[in-house]
TrEMBL record:
Assembly notes: Homodimer.
Domain Aminotransferase class I/classII large: residue ranges: 57-402
Coiled coil: none
Pfam families: Aminotran_1_2 (PF00155)
Family: Belongs to the class-I pyridoxal-phosphate-dependent aminotransferase family.
Keywords for the protein's UniProt record, in alphabetical order: Aminotransferase, DNA-binding, Pyridoxal phosphate, Transferase
Protein name (record): DNA-binding transcriptional MocR family regulator
SUPFAM superfamilies: PLP-dependent transferases
InterPro entries in the record: Aminotransferase_I/II_large, Class-I_PLP-dep_aminotransf, PyrdxlP-dep_Trfase, PyrdxlP-dep_Trfase_major, PyrdxlP-dep_Trfase_small
Length: 412
């Protein structure tokens, strides 16, 4: 559960003295260690953030892929452009238009999921010791990238309306006072992973204004923006600020993660550097996946599919929030997300989510301890609960088991 197996493994590793210094930051995330346990069928996993793609029309996808192979096989199975397939980049601009973004396909770089986009952006901007400002908490996968490039993460607080502008200003001032260089603000404005909150429209403007004034680039990571439950998508930050925002998108949650297709939309000069970085990393993003996603978008009512996903996730959110209200012991608190996959649960004082995890797994329920989402050891009194994958009944059962473990813990 903790890092013990990794440490044992490292001590047996005869290459240990030869690795680059940056590998010191490459440790298995708490989530990864959990996956093995949480995937046992008897465990209700409220841990992973796997999208539930069971509603996808496999016949449509299969038909599109079959046609792709038969009609365009030699192109689809060949190397392609480092920037990505032009037709898909065009379609991506249509997807982004749903959030108010007007962009040219030339400024889109296709990546291997938005995870690779985070990697490429960090690769072209961060030297060891540079600072990246992140929300507190922040996405575990991005923190891992920043660590791997030896960037230092400075957290800025969030509340129910997202990143707190005053906290951002204070963080920027403190870093500058210390003579350090801030390379960018990494933010997840919609249905935050893991906090579940959405940055209000007013906050977006203030954050953009602060970053412009302070010369801090904004990295807007938005894989969940189209998965709101109760309203139309909010306007992306990039829609109001083209010159100082790099926007990241993904088909992982609105279609399927297995294709590994995401993208970055960047100011022109940055786009050039991203393409060079992409070429050195992969030569080109997978042509076959890109063309398959493109065919899906061209032949299927993808917006109707997203609507179905939203309805499914809303039902699961309702199941989780209802179960929390009915079953959680006093002293716990949580937010009610209006989109995405996650609820952030704060525990009564004195209870350590990481220490409790082995007991929870014994009780056949898994979650991710809050510490995974902080670069600085905070978060032990909180956990992330995902409602995306299990059915409503399983979610309720999982929350029941978790409540039982917590009650025992409170009595101790
Ligand atoms: N950013 C955030 C906030 C995420 O939650 C995830 C996936 N969990 C990613 C990026 C990466 O997604 P992908 O590479 O599948 O596009």
């Amino acid at each position: 559960m903790d890092s013990t197996p990794a440490r044992t493994h490292a001590s047996l590793d005869s290459f240990v003295d030869r690795y680059a210094a940056r590998t010191a930051g490459m440790t298995a995330s708490e989530i990864r260690a959990l996956f093995a346990v949480a995937s046992r069928p008897e465990v209700v996993s409220l841990a992973g953030g796997m999208p539930n793609i069971s509603g996808l029309p496999l016949d449509v996808v299969g038909g599109a892929i079959n046609q792709l192979v038969l009609e365009h096989g030699p192109v689809a199975m060949q190397y392609g452009s480092g920037q990505g397939v032009p037709e898909l980049r065009e379609q991506i601009t249509e997807v982004m238009r749903l959030e108010g973004i007007e962009a040219h396909p030339d400024d889109v770089v296709v990546t291997v999921g938005s995870q690779q986009a985070v990697d490429l952006v960090t690769r072209i901007f961060c030297d060891p010791g540079d600072v990246v400002i992140c929300e507190a908490p922040s996405y575990v996968g991005a923190l891992g990238v920043f660590r791997a490039y030896q960037a230092e993460v400075v957290h800025a607080e969030m509340d129910a309306h997202g990143l707190v502008p005053e906290a951002l200003e204070q963080a920027i001032a403190a870093v500058k006072r210390a003579g350090r260089t801030i390379k960018f603000l990494y933010t997840i404005p919609n249905f935050h992973n893991p906090a579940g909150v959405t940055m209000s429209a007013e906050r977006r403007q203030r954050v953009l204004e602060i970053c412009r004034r302070e010369g801090v680039l904004v990295l807007e990571d938005n894989p969940y923006g189209l998965l709101g439950f109760d309203r139309e998508p909010l306007r992306a930050m990039r829609a109001d600020e083209a010159d100082n925002v790099i926007y990241l998108g993904s088909f992982s949650k609105t279609f399927a993660p297995g294709f590994r297709v995401g993208w970055a939309l960047a100011p022109h000069p940055v786009r050039e550097k991203l393409v060079l970085a992409q070429e050195s990393a992969t030569l080109c993003p997978p042509q076959f996946s890109q063309m398959a996603v493109s065919a899906y978008l061209a032949t299927h009512d993808w917006q109707g599919q997203i609507k179905q996903f939203r309805e499914m996730y809303r039902e699961r959110r309702d199941a989780m929030v209802g179960a929390l209200e009915d079953l959680m012991p006093a002293g716990c608190s949580w937010n009610v997300p209006d989109g995405g996959f996650y609820v952030w649960l704060t525990l009564p004082p004195g209870i350590d989510a990481k220490a409790m995890l082995p007991r929870a797994v014994t009780a056949r329920v898994a979650y991710v301890p809050g510490t995974a989402f902080f670069a600085d050891g905070y978060g032990s009194g909180a956990m992330r609960l995902s409602f995306c994958y299990p059915t409503a009944e399983r979610i309720r059962e999982g929350v029941r088991r978790l409540a039982g473990v917590l009650e025992d813990e409170i009595e101790l």
